[in-house]
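*Target chain*
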Amino acid sequence: MKRNVPLFIGCTVFLALFILTIAGVITNLTFNLFSVSLVPAQQIVTEVIVLLFWLGLNHFYLRQRVSWRFSFRRWYLVLPVIVVLLGDATLKPHFTFDWAHILWALGLGLAIGVVEEYVFRGLLVNYLATEFRLGAGLTATLSALTFAVVHIANLSDGDLINTVAQVLAACGIGFFFAVIYLITKNLWLPIIGHTLIDSFDQLAFGTLSNTAGTSLVTSSVYAVFFVLLGVYLLRKNRLQPGLRHVTEHQPSFGPHYSNRRLWIDPWKTVLVCLIPPLELLIVPLAIKLVHGQLGRVIIMDLVFLLGFCGALWLYGSVLKADWPRFKRHWLRNSLWAIGGVFVSYAILAAVRLVLKPLAVGSGPDVLSIQPALVSFAASLTVLLAPFTEEIIFRHALFYQWKQRGILTWLMFILSAVLFGLVHWNNFDGNIIAMVPYMAVGAWYALIYYWSHNIWQNIMTHFLFDFIQFLGAVLVLVVTLLQG
């Protein structure tokens, strides 16, 4: 069973970054819709959304009983964070002391502290100790390394040295906080320590970005100090391998669910979910290597063809299993698909009408601004999209999570939002213009939920997209006849 530890760690890192990104997008979209600009409030709301996701995932999937019991016993274990406060105070802070800044700093520090300690100390430490039966030292080390790896994402700020410094500090402090939790079974102690550090930095530097309040020297000191202190505490308390089993349930990864639930393969799920972001990243880079519109469109088609093949390779068995039931009543199911297309266009029209005051367009008219042959080549991707997107957004991100209570509907919302965002390049990053497609994505998820057959979705989606392909064919034919 321990061979699955790297997979579990990898999934945790992916989910931590993925959910934080999606929560940030949802928060920004909501605040922009209401024309509200409060950066600290947006950050706090983002953390709340992230926390709700992890609470749901734990309740319905991981099922770890995280200890929220608060006790003043051993409160002195939090005192070593003073080293961080003193060290950060040497990095040219610019304190802003007024009630507004203090309250925002405490609120943001607490929100981040609760989320990150719940995930990396509460869930991760419990799962590694109880499910994989790892020793206390290895459990704390893996918790620290996972926490540190997540901070590599801060490299997006463009400062390599500061990112390395933050990763070092996160590794040392994360190890120490994991040891505190292992010793006391009191998650509030690392939460308090984490809150003190982040609140102090928010007051001192006005941000928690890695471009402020970090130093390679101080971070190295933090890493060495807290690792040595954590090792000392572990040796002193002589913890036995594994925590007491706080819940009796079957392992979370494996074919153990009842007939009402599908077995979720985490490895396949992660891989298939990487296809859309890779396509969005690779296509703009690849087309720069080719001159001429037709060549660029062909490159784009090839990239999407690879995504299509990858999705089929991972989940082709789902299509194969559902096809006989769809074919048995193909006429009825096809009529339902045609009706689903009409509903899809009605949803698009209705949502765009609601968003009309925000000047939401329907996107560029590809057929009117490109030559006929280029339009035809570009439209070929719509023949692949129904298969790829239904496998990813409806099966991997929604249907396989059915019968899991609130988590099912959290994934329903997530799959719909991501389906809209995958059309990023179609609307030049205009998130408001993607909202109608989020609504259509929710409609397709309901079709799958009611029909229990992915081919019903594929057929509906195919007919919806086929209209664009048919338009491109007609334009090409008219152009050839006129030529």
In short: Residues 144 and 175 are 5 Å apart (CA to CA).
